[in-house]
User: Fold these one by one.
Assistant:
Number 1:
Amino acid sequence: MTARYESLLSAAPLPEDLAAIPPMPAFAEAATGFVEAFSTHLFRMPAARRYPELTALAFWMRKSNLARVRTEMRARAADSLLVPRGTVLHIAPSNVDTMFVYSWLISLLTGNRNIVRLSSRPSAQADELVGAVATLLADPAHADIARRTLLVRYAPDDLVTERLSAVCDVRVVWGGDSVVRQIRRLALPPTAIEVAFPNKYSLALVHARRWQEADEERKAAWVEAFYNDAYWFDQMACSSPRQVLWIGTPDQAGDAAADFWPRLERVLASHQARFADVDYVNKRVAQDGMAIETAVRIPASRSNDLARVWLDVPALHDERHCGAGLFFESALPDLEALRPLLARRVQTISYAGLTKDELSAFVAAGPITGIDRIVPFGRALEFSTVWDGFDLLRVFTREVTVA
Amino acid sequence: MTTQDPFLDWPVYGLEHAVKSERLAAELTRLTWKHAEGCAPYARILRARGYRRDQRFALEQVPFIPVRLFKEHELISVPPDQVYKVLTSSGTTSQSVSRIALDRDTSAAQTRALVLILQSFIGKTRRPMLIIDHPGVIGNRASFSARGAGIVGLSSFGRDHVYALKDEDMAPDVDAIRAFVERHHGKPVLLFGFTFMVWKYFYQALKDRPDVPAFGEAILIHSGGWKKLAEEAVDNTRFKEALRARFNIGAIHDFYGMVEQVGSIFMECEHGALHAPAFADVLVRDARDWSALPAGKTGLIQVLSVLPSSYPGHSLLTEDLGEWTGQDDCPCGRLGRTFRVFGRVAQAELRGCSDTHAGMVAESGAVGA
């Protein structure tokens, strides 16, 4: 019995037939032309206006940004001779609906054939994106891309994943720890490689005194930026800040927090859509559970769109986190106090009131476990071709040496 | 043994809302601080949320905890040697079960409260009782499942108990049922079972037989929720009509209750409304800000009961959606709040970074009531 999946594109090739179609050169015109057309298409879609993450994606795909991505990649490749690996299987995450597009497009631009497996979780954004891709790839102008692309959806099924894995040269797994574990069990061709992006946990870092000293305009911009970082994907993205660490004395931290959260609450009151009831219950369970397990205070908030847990002793507690607007917070006397807190699963630090130089110096000053990227408030969700410490350019290409 | 709790002398459906709220609030305030004293984890929650010791609460201000906490933590307010029996919830979607520790006082109060409530519906005489379940469900007496505890609790209201289903395959024990009907022909009888069991293993298994049992004056009491029946498009109205038409069961009462608050159950009256007895009440809260909602607005149900004195379960936020519909105004004449339950809140998809395979469990897992 053949393992079956739902193909989301009409006239898509069979996985077993992909190998017969040659890869393309990096940044081939067919690929850049397709990505630009996709961008234009997204900008015109009324749905894109409803979902800021679709707009962000459309911006990323614009011609000018692609040129920037290309220049960066060239600079990183330097004199290396890089060729596409062949066929890339992307197992897309369910928590960030646009992620499969970034993963797929970087791979496409570097010349690979692609199989993208979408989560079976219903998602309006994913449906909009799939609809757009299907329309574009039905156009003969993009036939070169269409014959190298499979976009599939299936409920978790090892047989299907094995079938797709058997024809790939790279398997990229975006998903939780359990997904990564499950998929790693499934065989790959001996020459294939795998890169996994498992559960990650991200933090916001704010210099308490400098927060207090900032002017109104600055604070308003920071709060808005923090809101976008934390709430866009319901705080479910790996890079969404889930914990706020205030650098300063406990008093300074308390004062800054007392100024920060009411400002965020005003943004929430005007911007934030209601979460599901179960999200609010989950947050309450997390708060009360933490009160039982560790020394915390649970400050009241205006609405449950914001749920806070103040930790007397800073620690990650990531296993307790359920997203949807739940924030653990604590005070750190100085930046150095962050170092012992870190674990490998800490991904993004988004910061306010600190400088790039201070943070670079911190990273350079001693051994560091975890942290894949450090970005200012407002850029936590920005996609980068270096992700979780992996240079995707190198993931999707292999280097040929000629002596 | 202490003297009987004073609230058991309150008229079970005879307290006007204003009087009842005041009495309940005072008793629940007392319980809140009693549990804080006896149960350290509970005290930590109150402290984290900024409650001050010996603060007094109006009914709507009584601190509540999510009922799910009983699945994650052992919450007990009495020393271990006073634990007389432990109730467990039937595991549903997750493997974790609630563990509710009862001391003798709490257990006795539960039994007494249940008697007072049920007497209002079935009178004081013990009726012959047909249990719509299989005898094996009682099993181990030291640790009851919710279903087992419900059956044991209700059994004392009947006599001449007969189990309607067979242990092996849950098929109706037709001979036993027929014998029961014939033996008590013309006399009032009591039937009890879990909603889904009654429908699936009793009604559906018997309805097409030529010799369906025809009861005389029968009361059916059932509970357990409508989730599984909703999948078959069976609601309370259809349930009652079907059982009435096929088996001549005239009086059918659902009740809302949970293992975390055994005893102070919310019975459905002759007019289809769930009623809060004197020692319990319901509030409906908006999940977005926990505000108590007015009548007719849907929200999360909070259940309050003065019975739990061995564990901090006197004020619980459930994961059930409902609305309250009236106060002291039901045509059945019972005073207190009336309400309706719409079912469990939709479980969020397993999100966060836990996509695909974890998702499969949610998609295919069997879900209990």
Number 2:
Amino acid sequence: MTWRVLLLCLAAGCAAPRSRARAPRAALPSPVQLVKLQPSTGPGVVVKLVFRSGSIDDPPGREGLTALAARLMAEGGTANVTAERLQELLYPLAAEIDVHSEKEVTVFEGRAHHDHLDRFLPILLDVVLRPRLDAKDLERLRGDAISDLEKRLRVADDEALGKEALEALLFEGHPYGHPVVGTSSGLRAITMEDVRVHIGRVFGQRRLTIGIGGAYPPELPEHLLRMLATLPEGDVLSREPPAPAENKTRVLLIEQENIATALSLGFAYDLRRGQPGFFPLALAVSALGEHRQFHGRLFVELRAKRGLNYGDYAYAEHFAQEGWTRFPRTGTPRRRQHMSLWIRPVEHANRLFALRAALFELDRFAKEGLSAEELDRTREFLLGYTRLFEQTDSRRLGYALDDLFYGTPPHLEALRASLPAIGLESVQAAIRQHVDPRRARIVIVTKDAAALRDALQKGDPSPIKYPTPKAQDVIERDRAIAAFPLGFAPDEIRLVRSEELFR
Amino acid sequence: MKLGASLCLLSSLAAAANPLPLPMRVEKLDNGFTVALVRLGPSGTVGIYTLVRVGSRNEVEPGHTGFAHLFEHIMFRGTKRFPAAVQQELIQRLGYDDNAWTSEDNTVYTPFGPGAGLARILEREADRMRNLEYSRDDFKTETKAVLGEYNKSYSDPSMKMEELLLEKAFSRHTYRHSVIGFLEDIKKMPLRYDYSLRFFRKYYVPDNCILFVVGDFDEEAVLAQVRALYGPWKGKVHTPKIPDEPPPADEQRVTLPWPNPTQVRIMIGYRTPSGYRESATQTLLSGYLFGPVSRLHKDLVLDRQLVERIEPWFEPHRDARLFHFVIALKRDDAADAVLAALDAEVERLRSGTVDERLFADVQSNLRTGLLLGLDTPARVGEALAWHASPRGDPDGLGRHVEALGALSPTDLAAFARDHLVKTGRTIVTLAPRAP
């Protein structure tokens, strides 16, 4: 394969690409592309090897194969060193090789001090060029993945379970329809031969983008290109996933032995970065509930005024949190997106009221949109707050690589540039076009789910009792919330035990 | 006072690598309030981290656990000048990330955002420290949010395991309860508004706080503003009567039944002393015993595959607390074999056999990791506040790094001999329902 390289220079002093007149298609990574930030002065160097391969590439019956194969590459040693020796080489340097698989991409991220680059790079390259693929390590990592699925996600993390089950509900029967980590049967069925063949297919040149940031030497880009030229070509990119079919199930109740009820709701839609309406809707959704901040409408109404729970947030696209920060993780781009609401666990006694409160707010959002004042202050908020998303070389590089996936100009810069021109009309239009509460699908992880199913079917009002007097406006709105129509037909509600999921 | 040199102690740990330039300027006001300024490169952002040296350690009255953490919530309820709605709008318009954390020893408020908002954020921070005001009804509503926080953490058994471990490991000291407090106390919180007012007045006082301003800002302008905002603040910190903890008499083992079929986990804590040197030793020991190149990791995780992961939980504290960690089993029936391996490894260390190569690798990992990790004003602010907490020294991070660099393999063995003893050990084993 001939290496034609697209160099994207991304930093102050480099002109940003002009916005395109039409919504771009998500860009394809062939020919191999290289994204490099302007070198920085810090001590660290970051290299991201992004493959356009994710759980959508898992063969039927082998759900989890892409993520497991990637972990085996990153943690299972190389042709030259065992898994144990790999750690012995990296650890004294405080160098790290992480891998993260998502629906459509897998990112191998290497980080090291620039003084250690000579020792670090050959290891990082060997991880993708010459993985060891030892059967013992496959068993170890398979066991970890099964445990993550069966002993953590299903039974020890209700909020994560709710989110994962919501995605599975929105994308049932779709390439996005199973967790990235896999399913119980899929993980158990994977053989070493599956892994070997799959690596050759999905971790090849045709799907690779190289990203470089930090205090790297000038010769690093060329060196990486030269070394990675020996990578097999692999398969071409998977086709764009279709729009998911609307699931007949509107409410999925998950029976769980717990002390509080976790709620997630959302709907898939045909909107993503780079498309008209995305920025106005992203602004509106920030006003509805910016992740882990105190000023979103949902947070104020459900937690601050009513004390229902710990927090309530909304998302205009798939969201994963970056470590312990409140910022979105990069490296999770998707061509099919969904909007969602995250209602943190509420007391069982308040679960129906809390669900109605969330639906009430979503309905109000769809019908009324934002006020001029909300628009104004959310615009100001995003102008400043999004600067915090790009504080490290790794995150700046992550955004640049995501831009390439979506085929857009630099996302955060473009968002900030668009904000002054976003008016109420464009916000309300984006909401009208993309937000339809009747399409919302709901996942509830709770105890005695059958009782909740009965209550949902009956649709009787569900008033709430507080330990403290409330303001008149809260009391009045509570009446409307308590009687908010649900309208779920019996066959639109499904009840499962948590252990039945992702089998 | 300039303390730049002390933080540059990192350079002595960094061997031939670049020193970490964290020049710190510290000023103590007449009322005991301390401000520490750390200017970094031109990021355009600033972290404004207020360390209040109050945590669950201060909760000495029986039945009143969780109040330090409750204030982490209440402090967002506002003041006359900045009522909650005004505060929310201010934060939003300035584009700040606005949060806080509470631990056993400290509560830290962590607004982080564009430098242009610094002056206004400082006004708000000073005002809520000095003039917090919340109604009885707001108080009750916020206690329900705390209950919500407890509830959201409950599905992971780690919280309950730690509650049990602390209750067993301590009989008198306030480290006996967790930061969020006992569930029965959280449920009674709505009735304790008046108590909350007294609690606030005892600990939210100038000589109990250190303000760290980290990032891209004008040093003189900030200092002048800090003097004006915090200088008139009055009050002296209350010293709580924290009961002395008697020496441990014997090893304690307890089993926690769990209603869901999650993995078997073992949480272990050894009673250990506090102090810069002691904390540095335990930090190093965490890597030496449980890190990815440790002998236990190789044996239990990679080779025999009895264990999925070992998580060190040690953090520096003000008083003697625990060297503690969690072992998540891969094989449900492996608890005895895992404990035997742990005992053998600890005994090896206690006998004076220290793998010098491994020791050097851990030391190298810690110093380079620190250099690489302090890459944003927020991360620097977090590290400074955390390490300042145990002794109230704004340069606690420098002291910690200095102590790490001074350790030798024989120190590790001596510490293990003195403190990793079975009579000071508590073990909680999770017994989940079978699938």
Number 3:
Amino acid sequence: MASNRHWTWFYRLGSPRWFYETTGRWLPWLWTLTLVLLTAGLVWGLGYAPQDAKQGNSFRIIYLHVPVSFLALAGYYLMAIAGAIGLIWKMKLSYMVMKSAAPIGAALTFLALFTGAVWGKPTWGTYWVWDARITSMLILLFLYLGVLALQYAFHSQESGNKASAILALVGTVNIPIIYKSVDWWYTLHQPATIKFTSAPSMHIDMFQPLLLMIVALYSFYALALILFTRAEILQRERKATWVCELALQAGKDSAGEAG
Amino acid sequence: MKFQFDSVQQMLEMAGHGHYVWTAVLVSLLVMAWLLVRPLQLHRANLKFIARQLRREQRRQGAGEKQQ
């Protein structure tokens, strides 16, 4: 019996309804946290952090570039793991999370490339180079788009889920390449500023707002992922009784507002 | 900790790097806002679609009962 109880949390976690209701209670807090952290981080980074001795003010792009790149990569792990859980345990919710992670990851990867390009112009004198880091990030973008496209490529949801999950898993090969690219091919992109194993290679006054922005982006990511997953739950569970009740209730509420 | 710019004008210009920095900021905020607004739109559209579907089914059932 003890082992049964041990596993109930796992099954509950797999229940779309439980996820929908629990995250519904978290949302107001998560919205507040995200907006406060993002505002504080941006004001600090753009207005108060000292400018870089060599790069001047263009360096301030780091406060977006590094956090979005972090989450573009972390989001890929999350998507691949969600896909793996779906394949192994056939958990419906897991596939919904996987699908929801794809557009967010693609958007953040695009932003990593875009902010990098805009930063590259004043720093390297060019928007784009086929540098190892940049090229492997471009591949990451295509992987995200591929996972998303496969969701719509099959008539059956089940086949789409499996195909997406397999592509997501195969694509994880790219992640260590992205991390190591700046060390293996020492081209234009600078090595990582932040490493878990050593002190950051930047001044503490510049580092603190960066850390805050990274935390802010994690919070933003959680919020976006929850919002996309909730919409996906309604879409895929539209035949479930609790979703029908929810839809009728929402219809009544909006009719009441209009009246 | 000290504010790095003397005026709004100076902060916008950022000593010649303003358009790079503010382009990056603006595009990032737009894309990030889309990532929060889009799922809310989908959420609402899904609820509406389901409610409409249910009402249609109810009407059809109601009509069926009358015929009998």
Number 4:
Amino acid sequence: MRRRPRLLVMTAHGRIALLLAGLLLVAVGLALLGRWEGDRAVRGELREMRRVLDLVGPTLTARAPSAYRPAETFACLAYRTSKEEPYGLELCFDAEGRLVETIDRRGSGIRVSSLREEPETSGIRVGVDTVLSALRSAAPQRFPATVRALPIGVPDLGPITLEPGDAAANPG
Amino acid sequence: MALGSPARWAFLLAVAVVAIALAAKRGALRDALREPVYLVAAGLLGLMTLSLAWTVDVPVTLERTASFGTLVVAAAALAWAARGVPRFAERVLLGLLLGAAAVAAAGLFVLLISPDDALQGATTQSGFRYRGVGENPNTISMLAGIATPLGLWAAIEARSALNRGLAVTSLALFYFTIVLSGSRGALLASVAGATVVTVTSAPVLRVRLARTAAVAALLVVAVGIGRLPQPEQVSAPVTTSPGPTSTTPEPTVETPPVVVPPSERPGGALADEAGRPTSLARRGLLDSSGRILAWRMAIAQANKRPALGYGFGTEDAVFVDRIYTFQSRRPENSLIGIYLQLGLAGVALLLAIAAAGLTSAVRAARGELAGRGVALAAAGVVVAGGVMALVQSYVYAAGNIATLTVWTCLFLLTVAAASWSRRSE
């Protein structure tokens, strides 16, 4: 029987050390992969959210919002895109005015892009004042200048219309 | 109804400490990692811990990894303590059975003293559903479905009339819970798990067939009973037409207008906009309760981070239920849930654990084990748990009522197949 070269003979401790080193390498590799994948996903969401924001316009007032939707952790502005679709585009902002979710309902199905689970990663900061301006332009009585915060922290009960003539359908 | 949240974590920790002490007494702990289920489970826990590096919610991942890790360690250690000692495993299974039966009996007690708490009201798509002491109708019924093989095994192998009576009572409680809950997943899981026990429980084919036929008959009866509760009727304008001999038309009778909540208005709650039904037809036996759509949406979301997911424990945070007919914070499928949390790496590990468990079940069924009945009862629980995992997000949730039972039986099955073959007792 041929003897193995001396360099390849490994003690039990050596084998354990090699195993641990291998595991550490795998762990570091997985951690890097996970972070890269997360960053890539965030970039994808931001790209899509910016596309929807561009459709509405950065000031949010190129056209008046058709409705707003208060919710627990964000508030949304909806925009009419056709006669049949009063909420065709929707932009949602957190309390700091960061764009955290967009919904595109044009055509069949809905396209949701969201960073609601990690809003701090959203690099699209529109600003609370800009969002309030848009709300004020559509409903000055409901959002007077004294209102300084977005309608956040309430259960999501659906859109509240801002279009004239629909007040009876959505009192409040 | 909440079931003492802080106390259960303390209890889980206590179980883990005792189980580790018992396993240490049995010795050779390092050998556990030679068993595929133990090794892959360790890998899964490792991946969960590693996901702290990329999770979208570090505190949640930390907390869920710690709680689930404690549960898996407790289950693994408890099973290891049964290495070479089928009688110990038998006592563990009887303990799990009694625990499940106590929960089912508590539900019945609540039904008797406070029916409103024990029942979920009828909706426009389904009749009333029994939930006992559970959060919803799927909670306790899930435990009942998974524990059914244990009740069947205990009834078959009981050595006294009293024990057989207790086992049959447990089975009756489980059946009652499952049937009145209207939980189809629990019903399927219980039948699958019970079938494992019936087809392997007796050496004579005729007896096995008779027992399996009895399980099938109970399934048919359960489906029939489950269709009895009627959905809520929606008030609709009712008109009466004049009789053929009448010359004066009767006035039209209309019901009062229905007050429509905001979420039901045209446009609706946009948070629930997907899959809105076009009619108020009753849910059929084979209709999905919105789950299929929830799965598709969850998979589409998970595809955004396919390799490693959003981080363990974040399923509730990242899955958003936008579906009209679906009411859950999770997609209710354990494989899709783990795909969301740990990506394909997590799915692969979970499937590897399932495959190792099934391999052990086959070994137990074919082998000459000292505690074959105990091993096959555990196999029944694992099969029932596997079926349940296809319709519930739970196998990785330490807070779920059925998780500890399933993992304990999985490890017991592995230990049984590996160490009971020499008729050690």
